[in-house]
Write a structure and sequence with these properties.
It contains nine helices and 15 strands. The protein has helices at about 15-20, 35-40, 60-70, 105-110, 110-115, 130-140, 150-155, 205-215, 245-260, and strands at about 1-5, 25-30, 50-55, 60, 75-80, 85-90, 100-105, 120-125, 145-150, 160, 170-180, 190-195, 220-225, 235-240, 260-270. A hairpin with a 3-residue loop joins strand 3 (about 50-55) and strand 4 (about 60).
């Protein structure tokens, strides 16, 4: 059984992503922070970590990108989860009676319409969507309802009061499946996750981007992150998609030559939307 570390409690959206990656035969290892989930794999306490890297509305999860560099873990693949939020409460509590409702701050921000339409409700910030339901049902949460996935509500026995309370139905989060470097073979896919550092001089980024164009490689994401200990210097995290494996490998070799530093986190197959999604 595969041991899978996630940030958050069972029922979190990372749990849903883990099920999409690996199926139901997993041993879930809930962690309170991203750092703990990465460290669990580094310490061989978990075989995999499933970590969010980008939300369609909130943008990149920069803490995940920073930890990807510092941890040395490898990217095995990508999946996407539709973020469908529901309101749940202990049995017997009606929506009209709810005065306080808890969730992760990003989830609360994505449910503005709910609070505008129910102005008697006060948002309560907690560390995790699924954790808000767990604590509520265990009696340790100082609030009357929670916003989470339907999976979390079902796992902890909460009564669902309203479904699909998110403001935008086109809300998705992308997740990476991570492992210790060298523990699994390279996939040979046409997608790659890479980070590069370039010299701080005119035209450096322009020249680097030209490399991707030369090999017909699409850059699906680029995020600049400050390099700790080196003020005003940045490292660029990129996700790329090549027309074929040969073009990807040739492009990565050229990027390595054009940059001060380069780290390839992994190559993997492109995400394919399930027919039933």
């Amino acid at each position: 059984m595969t041991r899978v570390a996630i940030q958050g409690e069972a029922g979190a959206f990372s749990h849903e992503a883990a099920l999409k990656f690996l199926g139901p035969d997993i041993q879930l290892m809930p962690c309170r922070t991203f750092s703990e989930a990465f460290q669990a794999v580094s310490d061989d306490e978990a075989d995999r970590a499933v970590i969010p890297v980008e939300n369609a509305l909130a943008g990149p999860v920069v803490q995940s990108l920073d930890l990807l560099w510092s941890s040395g873990l490898a990217v095995l693949g990508e999946t996407r989860v539709r973020i469908r939020l529901c309101v749940s409460a202990p049995p017997g509590v009606a929506l009209e009676a709810v005065r306080s409702i808890a969730s992760h701050p990003v989830a609360l921000e994505q449910c503005r319409n709910l609070f505008e339409q129910n102005q008697q409700m006060e948002p309560v910030v907690v560390y995790d969507t699924a954790g808000s339901v767990k604590d509520m049902m265990q009696g340790s949460g100082d609030y009357e309802a929670a916003i989470s996935s339907q999976l979390a509500a079902e796992l902890y026995g909460a009564h669902i009061l309203e479904t699909d309370v998110e403001d935008d139905p086109r809300n998705y989060t992308r997740f990476f499946e991570l492992s210790a470097s060298g523990t699994v073979p390279v996939s040979g896919g046409v997608c790659g996750a890479v980070a590069v550092g370039i010299p701080n001089k005119p035209g450096a980024l322009y020249n680097l981007l030209g490399v991707f164009n030369s090999y017909g490689v699409d850059m699906s994401q680029i995020v600049a992150r400050p390099i700790r200990g080196e003020p005003w210097k940045y490292r660029f995290y990129m996700e790329i998609v090549a027309p074929d494996v040969e073009a990807l490998q040739a492009c990565l070799e050229a990027v390595d030559e054009a940059s001060d530093e380069m780290r390839l986190f992994g190559t993997y197959a492109p995400y394919e939307e399930p027919d039933s999604d």
